[in-house]
Design a protein that fits this description.
This protein is mainly alpha-helical and about 475 residues long. It has one domain. It is built from 19 helices and no strands. The protein has helices spanning about 1-30, 35-55, 55-65, 75-100, 105-130, 135-160, 160-180, 195-230, 230-270, 270-300, 300-305, 315, 320-335, 340-345, 350-370, 375-395, 405-430, 435-455, 460-475. Helix 2 runs parallel beside helix 7. The relative contact order is 0.11.
Length: about 475
């Protein structure tokens, strides 16, 4: 069942990831670095607002709906979202008064609009995921991605620049939330006061951690914008978006397939069965994100030279390998290590981790950016993500102890080495950049990784394929 669900969620994340790569290619050609920097800053503010105001609802849905299939928490989530949205709208005028002289009001309002849209979309999608409705989740997610790209191109074509792109993204998420939530039921009829109290007791403490995590996830971009200007933030934003588009999307597809099953396994089958599920989760996560990190690191010149606008290429090329490794550490932390805190309901531990990580990020980012510019920001991000991962592993020992099988890890790493070797050989053979070079290098690396994964039976791919062939032959 895990592999079947993962295949659906994989498609649900892969297609938006491809569209995200296409968006970077198109938008970096339609927008100059300053305009793209406006979009980067706006999305960064939206990320902070979403983490503070709406993440507690989403995390509560993840925790409780997955283990309570006979209880409908949709009405409770709707009331919580509505009350939070009213609070946000009431706070906007105060924010404008306090920050109006230092922050572009249009960017601030656009960011709040995006935060509302993303919050609503994530919550409705979590209900699809928790209730094991992967097809609906996939259709809505892919449609939202296509719509966001189309409206974004239209907004830029009209001449609205980075602000128009920001508004287009927010609108696409709101439309996606409506599509995901319209499943023929009446949400308000399912509201229960005791459920709201349960959400608040579990989720609201996580808002403190959400604030720290939200600030951390965008602090590098905001520091770059503050010290080097929005133009530099545009360059750095593209460099961070490239690994995020695939690695976070793929990591979230693994989480979407595994987290509800893990929670339900814990409630129905106990700790031993849950650890077995987590072992599958860890190997599957590494098997899909490690090759992306290898591809972005070893084929950086082909990726940047083909997918990024000419104005951005020179600055992004040296950043990409460093940021790919940093994002790999972050994905492992976010989509594997942190499930320990949710399984044990130890809300204080992720808060402590996020606060420490945020403090370290700021402590490293300011001096390194001031001294080394964009490269300093990349190294600060790598050091912070790696330290955050190690800290998360140590804290998990105080929560739900996560299993680790060295053989599973070794198989994935061996396949990754084969992939990196093939990419290096292909780069030497073809040389240069451009679409043909990118396709050759990518194909060589992909075939090497697939072949090694088959021989080493990574995530039991050979076993599953042979079983399928035997069934086909027998029929």
């Amino acid at each position: 069942m895990l592999n079947r669900y993962f295949s659906i969620y994989f498609g649900a994340q892969l297609i938006p990831a491809v569209i995200g790569f296409l968006s970077i290619t198109v938008f970096t050609r339609l927008l100059n670095p300053l305009e793209y920097g406006v979009y980067v800053v706006g999305m960064s503010i939206a990320g902070i607002a979403g983490s503070v105001f709406f993440a507690w609802i989403r995390l509560s849905v993840v925790r409780y709906q997955a283990i309570s299939a006979d209880i409908d928490f949709r009405g409770t989530a709707l009331v919580a979202f509505g009350a939070t949205a009213v609070l946000v709208f009431c706070g906007v005028p105060a924010a404008v008064v306090l920050l109006g002289r230092d922050v572009d009001i249009y960017v601030l309002c656009g960011s709040i609009f995006v935060a509302l849209g993303v919050g609503a979309f994530d919550i409705t999608q979590e209900f699809c995921r928790a209730n094991l409705k992967p097809v609906r989740y996939a259709v809505v997610g892919i449609s939202r991605s296509v719509l966001g790209f189309a409206i974004g191109c239209l907004a830029i074509g009209i001449g609205w620049g980075g602000l128009g792109l920001l508004a287009a993204v927010g609108l696409s998420f709101l439309i996606g939330a409506l599509a995901s939530g319209l499943d023929g039921g009446t949400w308000l009829n399912t509201y229960r006061r005791e459920h709201l109290i349960k959400f608040a007791r579990y989720g609201l403490p996580l808002s403190v951690g959400g604030l720290s995590f939200g600030l951390y996830s965008v602090s590098d971009r905001l520091v770059v914008a503050y010290l080097l200007g929005e133009d530099a933030a545009g360059h750095y934003g593209v460099a961070t978006d490239l690994p995020r588009q695939f690695m976070v999307m793929l990591g979230s597809s693994v989480a979407a397939a595994t987290f509800p099953i893990v929670f339900r396994t814990l409630s129905e089958e106990g700790i031993a069965a849950t650890r077995a599920r987590l072992n599958e989760n860890a190997e599957l996560l590494l098997a899909v994100v490690v090759p992306v990190a290898v591809w972005l690191s070893f084929a950086a010149s082909q990726v940047v030279g083909t997918l990024v606008g000419a104005d951005f290429r020179a600055s992004i090329l040296p950043l990409l390998p460093v940021l790919a490794v940093a994002r790999l550490c972050g994905v492992i932390n976010q989509f594997y290590v942190q499930i320990s805190f949710q399984l044990s309901e130890r809300s204080a531990l992720p808060i402590f981790q996020s606060v420490v990580t945020l403090a370290l990020s700021i402590a490293l980012m300011f001096p390194l950016v001031a001294r080394f510019g964009l490269m300093g920001a990349a190294y600060a991000a790598l050091l912070t993500e790696a330290t955050g991962l190690v800290l998360g592993i140590l804290l998990a020992r105080r929560a739900f102890r996560l299993p680790l099988e060295p053989r599973r890890l070794a198989r994935v790493l061996a396949a990754a080495v084969a992939m990196g070797t093939a990419i290096c050989a292909a780069r030497i053979a073809v040389g240069g950049t451009g679409l043909p070079s990118l396709l050759i290098v990518t194909t060589a690396g992909g075939l090497a990784y697939a072949g090694a994964a088959w021989l080493l039976n990574v995530v039991h791919v050979r076993t599953a394929m042979m079983s399928w062939l035997r069934l086909r032959t027998a029929s």
